Amino acid sequence: MVVLSPGAIDQFALIKTCRPSGAVFDGVPVVDLLRPDAATVLVRACEEFGFFKVVNHGVSLEVINRLEDEAVKFFGLPQSEKDKAGPPDPFGYGNKRIGWNGDVGWIEYLLLHSNSSEDDQKLSPSFSQGNQEFFRCAVEEYVRAVKEVAFRVAELIADGLEIEPRDVLSSMLRSEASDSCFRLNHYPLCPELQALTPSPSSRNLIGFGEHTDPQIISILRSNNTSGFQICLRDGAWVSVPPDHSSFFINVGDSLQALTNGRFWSVKHRVLAGHGKSRISMIYFGGPALDEKIAPLPSLVAEGESSLYKEFTWSEYKRSAYKTRLADYRLGLFEKPRVQ
Fold first, then answer.
1. pLDDT digits over 147-174, tens only?
2. Which one of 132, 233, 245, 248 is at 20 to 30 Å from 302 when CA atoms are compared?
3. Of which family is this protein a member (predicted)?
């Protein structure tokens, strides 16, 4: 867990607290990948919510649990040992500081590149040689399995939108140059906050502030702990019931642009301090740095104009790094609206 210094309680002014908000959302779309109507259900979910849950995904619980066990071991190391795997630049271990422009949260995390083992050297001080190998194998096995889910979802999107070729989206993720990444998040307990409030459930820390994901899609799995919230189109925040055996998928900014705004990049956040620590693992499926992002021609109707300027993933990524979490990053790439 994160060990607080004696004066750390004063830092709560930097890490926002909030009253619990948002009813539990029982309308999360569920996409069963074994059903023949999966593509139709998936597209409708992307249009209405930018978010859905995937079941019958084919990833074994053994693979999922193995990585969670390794993550628990890593985050359970002494703080001095975890710090040796950081600071993130951008890959490596980070603690509380989330973005490059002052965003902070009640979180510690490990960010890894999903297409190589280039992070091994940075992680090695925090593991004995044997434990490092177990950790690396658990990550690679999990990411390999989740990538297959991402490819399948991307092709179902193409099917549902009647896009040709069918791999127009999945090929961006399959590419060896794909700039995808993988993140392990840990939202630890905060006894100090619980001691400050009459009821531990009456107040929460912002674990990860509101934001959209800049990539194409994100695949999230967490332990059976609440805290994840999405923002609906009417601006209401709702809590997503946890489900440790399923995957939750977010539409990212790039997919919103590729679909000319038909799909919605969902704003989401995580509240911590629920009386139980939260572990989450997220695969962010991104294109190659030089991949051009623009509305797919088949999704721009005759007489309709594209809503976004063409940009490369590298350009968008650089722009996103200059913003705060909650900023509307796609706005810089929108075309002026014709009155």
1. 999 999 999 999 999 999 999 999 999 9
2. 233
3. Belongs to the iron/ascorbate-dependent oxidoreductase family. GA2OX subfamily.
Q: Would 10 be classed as within a structural domain?
A: no
In a domain, 14, yes or no: no
Residue 216 contacts residue 255 (beta carbons within 8 Å): yes
In the set 278, 318, 329, 337, the catalytic residue is: 278
Is 66 inside any structural domain? yes
Instruction: State pLDDT tens for residues 2-51.
Output: 333 333 444 555 567 666 566 899 999 999 999 999 999 999 999 999 99
- Residue 12 in any domain: the answer is no
d(CA 145, CA 261): 29
pLDDT tens, residue by residue, 200-214: 455 678 999 999 999
Q: Judge residue 23's burial from the number of C-beta atoms within 10 Å of its C-beta, 0-12 exposed, 13-18 middle, 19 or more buried.
A: exposed
d(CA 304, CA 180): 32
Q: Does 125 score more than 70 pLDDT? A: no
Q: Which two tokens stand for residue 69?
A: 């066990």
| Catalytic status, residue 278 | yes
Q: Decide: pTM greater than 0.85.
A: yes
Any idea what the CATH number is for the domain that residue 299 is in? 2.60.120.330
- Domain containing 295: what range? 20-333
